[in-house]
């Protein structure tokens, strides 16, 4: 569960390292974001000489959460960290790589680092799924 002021790891190659959630999309009273939800973020830490700078604002999709999420088959999925991928207004990833596993939803970079969950595919983030090194 991601809420306002939650800090997330940015798992793409846009140059951002840490992002902070400033709004969960889907209504003015919506409090929590889950796998595959789009949120508005501000960049809190970034690499020097990167296209994304500290203080930049934009959209991101949640690809990993520490809080477990129940799947339709009755199993649960959870990750070691909270992570997001920066996306454009057209829901395309900003980067070209995504690091780590993802839950099958979409990025702003061109590569995703780390595992991703299958739920991203249900939300239409197929490009993030294809960029991810591991899909859970």
From TrEMBL:
It comes from the Bacteria. InterPro entries: Ribosomal_uL14, Ribosomal_uL14_bac-type, Ribosomal_uL14_CS, Ribosomal_uL14_sf. CDD domains: Ribosomal_uL14. Keywords: Ribonucleoprotein, Ribosomal protein, RNA-binding, rRNA-binding. It holds the Pfam family Ribosomal_L14. GO terms for biological process: translation. SUPFAM superfamilies: Ribosomal protein L14. One of its GO terms (molecular function) is structural constituent of ribosome. Transmembrane segments: none annotated. GO terms for cellular component: cytosolic large ribosomal subunit. Belongs to the universal ribosomal protein uL14 family. Binds to 23S rRNA. Forms part of two intersubunit bridges in the 70S ribosome. Part of the 50S ribosomal subunit. Forms a cluster with proteins L3 and L19. In the 70S ribosome, L14 and L19 interact and together make contacts with the 16S rRNA in bridges B5 and B8. This is Large ribosomal subunit protein uL14. The lineage of its organism: Bacteria, Bacteria division WOR-3.
